[in-house]
Amino acid sequence: MQKNSILFIILSLFTVLSWYFLIAPRYHQQLPQQVEQTRNDAVISNGSLLETKSANKYIEENINIETEKYKAVLTNKGAAIISWSIKEKNGQMVDLVVPESVPVLANFPNEIYKVVSKSNKKVVFEHISVDGWKITKTYNFSDFYMHNLSVSIEKSHEVSFPEIIFKWGPGLGTDAKEIKENTLVTKISAYTATVPNKIERLKNVSKSAALYKWVAIDNKYFLAVFIPVKFADFDKIISSRIDKKYPYSLAFTAIVPKNINKKDYSINFYLGHKSYKYLKTYNFGFEKTVDFGFFGFLGKIAFEVLTFFHKLTNNYGWAIIMLTAVIQILVLPLTLKSFKSAAAMKNIQPIVKDIQTKYKDNPQRLQAEMLNVYRSQKINPLGGCLPMLLQLPIFWAFFTMLRNVYELRNENWIFWIKDLSAADHFMRIGSFNFNFLPLIMGVGMFFQQRMTTVTSDPTQRKMMYIMPIVFTFMFWSFPSGLVIYWITSSMISTIEQYFIVKKARFI
């Protein structure tokens, strides 16, 4: 049993550590000057496509838009967005425009536009170039998260139109506690136009806009989706980044036909959180950007059950505990099978040792005799390990779901647990955050190992006692919702082992 347990724990630990701790990229608040210059020279930069030939008669100004859901700041320089802060349920503001990407959705950002009109519902900008063409940009805002940007470009005489570019990035904003991994998790997601519709990840590519229904830039908890009203109006979708240290940028390009005097472009855009339930209300596939991991179908089932328990308790902390109990009940047959197999293996250990001693110089005979023992005793040597491995997809799906769903953000449990998506932060000692839940988890694991470890092998015993320390360190900065899950799971497992192993005397 102990060898199988060690194997299962090591596999789980390796999987979790590989995913969570190998985060080399770091989020950069400011770009170095030379990199900023490179970005300005990039093919999808928002740099002016026309050289200014005369002084602009308008002065630069910012326009503030504020509703119950968000606060935006626009500028008439490039008719762009320089800030878009989402108001979360705890009152926290999260700016989705990161400093190095300011401004976003700009057209000819060196030009100062005329502000034709402005209100919380609509802002209209206008610019007439020295070559005689005119561009009008209209932002239409809603009280929620879906908005519209319309661009009209026209001319009165023979002149070449410039290329139109709509760009967001590099990157998408998040809050302070997510900055460490934001570069790694920020991605460009495109929803295919052909059936069956699916999500594609665009990495440093230029693709035809007609291939997709919408394209988004998203991170762990937030999302910016762009849905052209007519994809045929646009030429390319470009996903690019400077290097691996920086997040991706997303751009739509459009070449205005030469034989027309006026052309209109319209893009609907969503700027908001990635609540799975809320995104599904749009019925446009936005919810597919929520990451449920490799075992996504299991993660979605777990999320639906978690949502059900939340309706009963009105508290996600208790909902996590209830869902963990349900999972433990579901895998109980596998747990029983593992215990029974381990018990049977333990019972034949004296026979096995005799065979190993007797035939230590004859490997073929040793293997044959071992197989005879297994057959005669009707024992599967992998019987104790396989049930545990079969539980790994359930564990991983639940782990990924709890770590990524927006619904747990800023949700409290009891006492000092105020945000299930963040570490519990029991107290702060200088610059060190003392997180109490991982410590409780580690102590519980230690006593569980002490109660259930029956091996006499010193190496195995040492390993079993080291694991609680390793897990405490690993879970130290994990979201408290995940730690609650692990504590609950360990407690239920301990109770099961006590009654099944000790009382039923399987071992």
Descriptive account of the structure:
- The protein is of the alpha+beta class and about 500 residues long.
- The protein has two domains: about 1-20 and about 295-505, no CATH class; about 35-45 and about 60-290, Beta-galactosidase, Chain A, domain 5 (Distorted Sandwich).
- The chain contains 13 helices and 19 strands.
- The chain has helices spanning about 1-20, 35-40, 180-185, 275-280, 295-315, 315-330, 330-345, 350-360, 365-375, 385-405, 435-450, 460-475, 480-505; strands at about 60-65, 70-75, 80-85, 95, 115-120, 120-130, 135-140, 145-155, 165-170, 185-190, 200, 205-210, 210-220, 220-230, 235-240, 250-255, 260-275, 425-430, 430-435.
- The strands form four sheets. The protein has a nine-stranded antiparallel β-sheet, with no helix packed on it. Strands 1-2-3-4 form a four-stranded antiparallel β-sheet, with no helix packed on it.
- Helix 1 (about 1-20) packs parallel to helix 10 (about 385-405), helix 5 (about 295-315) crosses helix 10 and helix 6 runs parallel beside helix 13 (about 480-505).
- The longest helix has 24 residues, at about 480-505.
- The model is unreliable at about 1-5 and about 20-55 (pLDDT under 50).
